[in-house]
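Protocol step 4 of 6: structure prediction from sequence.
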Amino acid sequence: MLVLLPPSEGKTAPATGSPLDLAALSSPALNPWREKVLDALAEASARHDAVAVLGVGASLADEVARNVGLRFAPTAPAAGVYTGVLYSAAGLAGMSGPAAVRAARSVRVVSALWGLVAPDDHIPAYRLSMGVDLPGIGPLARAWREPLSAELDARGEAELVVDCRSAAYLAAWRPSHAPQWVAVRVLRELDGKRSVVSHHAKHTRGVLTRHLLTRAAPEPVDAEQLAAAAGELVGSELHDVELGPAGRGARTLSLVVR
């Protein structure tokens, strides 16, 4: 099972910790691209128009300025650096025992800076989104496609892919051939009508991620088993679960909340 998550926009900056060690990160084949993006980000973040280049508001100028010194900034496990609704619900930072082992093997965050991040990879807090056209690199989703394809295609062919990413991060890698690729979406039912939601989507994807990692049963290996595992949350966290038909591209697992 491969669970793909988007990073959080907001991050908790470690107060202490060792500086960045790219050689210690998972997916070491991505390090040449990590080096390039890291250098380009530091240069862009030192510009007078850095907030505009990175597509953020002036209130985040301090976070952008922090990008300049990422190589020397304190690091902590990514499970604690990434914050927000999804990560709070997933509870990756507090996992231990078999759940932590499963998370280390199965969960990957698709990142504009690192390409891929495992929960226990030590990273600094940074500010960079996949939708940025980074000077010296270009549009980041396009820049990461080839290295991520080399890293993930084999897993996509062999494992169930539980895709909880947003559209910007989906653009960085789509399985070329994934028999069991499932995109997770969240719908809210109100007065018999269903609509797409944002805040609830992040929370519910986090709830599903935690459930898949902590349940006692073996992890699902196909879309039907994933739907059955999600169905275990109906009556508590979910109102309903629907698995879309097989076809070209990803199947859709709809998690319905009220």
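Step 5 (inspection) to follow. The longest strand covers residues 181-190.
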